[in-house]
Design a protein that fits this description.
single chain, alpha/beta, Aspartate Aminotransferase, domain 2, 2 domains, 4-stranded mixed sheet, 41% helix, binds pyridoxal-5'-phosphate, PyrdxlP-dep_Trfase_major, transferase, 8-amino-7-oxononanoate synthase, 8-amino-7-oxononanoate synthase activity
């Protein structure tokens, strides 16, 4: 362990936690200093919305701080059920169920659908975008003895087709992508994916991890399907998380009733884990209701547009993304860390994302814009980026 840690330290890849003393409206306090944070996934600022906080408080007084049991014992309350029903109504899915985290949800999908106990008469396949989140990749690798797991080049539907062509037409395939990619911030080509599978739709299911698109995309903020012309029914499995734009914590999987019932009966992540607190489910439902009105989304869009305009004027080499996740590739972990430190000295908190979270030589600054940022915050960010980057060149 010590060797591995020392190796990480030598390569400027060691992760360290930072104690946040307070967090208010995108200003965080660390060791007595205040910073404007551009590293939170609370894209709409809903984690601090008074109505969400009030729902949480009501839930706590009605149900206590814990759900106190698994969902299949006594942990499943009317608040969980209401939230699931609301998700189904607004995503056009038959059925939904809640998990304590998106990580658990992705693991559950892979392990339950493709586990060794699930005896299949024929081979099955998982074809996932190369840039899928670690929670899915890890789950898919864990079942590779049972399902052939391949990755198509990022957002490359022609490569997806080449892989699909190698799959015998009678074998089941799960094609997986992300609504907005967590580290690159670009959106998946759902329509392109659907076109590729049209001919084969009997045996190919499409799954979307919409963690970063929930709340951000669509007229109602219900994510990629809400925003796209693509037929919502063509997404067979939809995963969304609450810990980002929704502003609470946990996740859902929505699909047809058979798949959801199957997870309730066979997913170890679901059965052998305490259900999320009912208060959290209640607050999450309130959050969805606020989210659908769209006020915060409008602010977020304006802030993203302002940042992109100022960054382009300043000739900052932004990655190609139109959502709240904006990246600047730096290329080495040392440089990315040094830039992040320089930004801190200017009162701006932007985290350096390094390999192995992102591919080698694409170490970067991951900047997240949110609806709470003021114009002056975004101007301060761009000024600080220009200063920090020019000081690095010297
Ligand atoms: C794309 C994606 N999927 C899944 C997860 C896991 O969600 P959670 O944080 O709720 O465990 C994340 C979290 O970073 C994510 O970015």
């Amino acid at each position: 362990m010590q060797q591995a840690l020392a190796e990480r330290e030598r390569s400027a890849l060691l992760r360290k936690r930072v104690v946040i003393d307070s967090n208010h409206q995108s200003v965080i306090e660390v060791a007595g200093e205040h910073y404007i944070s551009f590293s939170s996934n609370d894209y709409l600022g809903l984690s601090q919305h008074p109505d969400v906080l009030q729902s949480f408080a009501e839930g706590l007084s009605l149900y206590g701080a814990s759900s106190s049991a698994s969902s299949v014992v006594t942990g499943y309350s009317i608040e969980h059920k209401r939230l699931e029903d609301d998700i189904c109504t607004h995503t056009n899915m038959q059925s939904a169920l809640l998990f304590s985290s998106g990580f658990a949800a992705n693991q559950a999908i892979c392990k339950t659908l493709f586990s060794t106990t699930n005896k299949r008469s024929q081979a099955c396949h998982i074809l996932a975008d190369k840039f899928m989140h670690a929670s899915f990749i890890d789950g898919a690798m864990g079942v590779s003895a049972n399902a052939q797991f391949s990755r198509f080049k990022h957002n490359d539907t022609r490569h997806l087709l080449q892989l699909l062509d190698k799959v015998p037409s009678n074998e089941d395939t799960l094609v997986v992508s992300e609504g907005i990619f967590s580290m690159d911030g670009d959106a998946c080509d759902l329509t392109g994916i659907q076109q590729q599978i049209k001919e084969r739709s009997n045996n190919v299911w499409v799954m979307l991890d919409d963690a970063h698109a929930m709340g951000v995309l669509g007229a109602q903020g219900m994510g990629t399907c809400d925003a796209s012309d693509a037929d919502a029914q063509k997404v067979d499995v939809l995963m969304g998380t609450f810990g980002k734009a929704v502003g609470t914590q946990g996740a859902f999987v929505a699909s047809n009733s058979a798949l959801v019932e199957y997870l309730v009966n066979f997913s170890k992540e679901y059965i052998y884990s305490t259900a999320m607190p009912a208060a959290q489910a209640r607050a999450t439902l309130t959050s969805f209701q606020i989210m659908r009105k769209g006020m915060e989304r409008e602010k977020l869009r304006n802030n993203i547009a302002l940042f992109q305009m100022l960054a382009t004027e300043a000739q900052l080499p932004l990655m190609d993304a139109n959502g709240p996740i904006q990246g600047l590739i730096i290329g080495s972990p040392e440089k990315a860390l040094a830039l992040s430190e320089k930004l801190k000295s200017l009162g701006i908190w932007v985290i350096a994302i390094r390999t192995p979270t992102v591919p080698k030589h694409t170490d970067r600054l991951r900047i997240t814009i949110n609806a709470m940022h003021q114009e002056r915050d975004i101007r301060a960010l761009v000024d600080a980026l220009v200063l920090a980057m020019s000081s690095m060149e010297k």
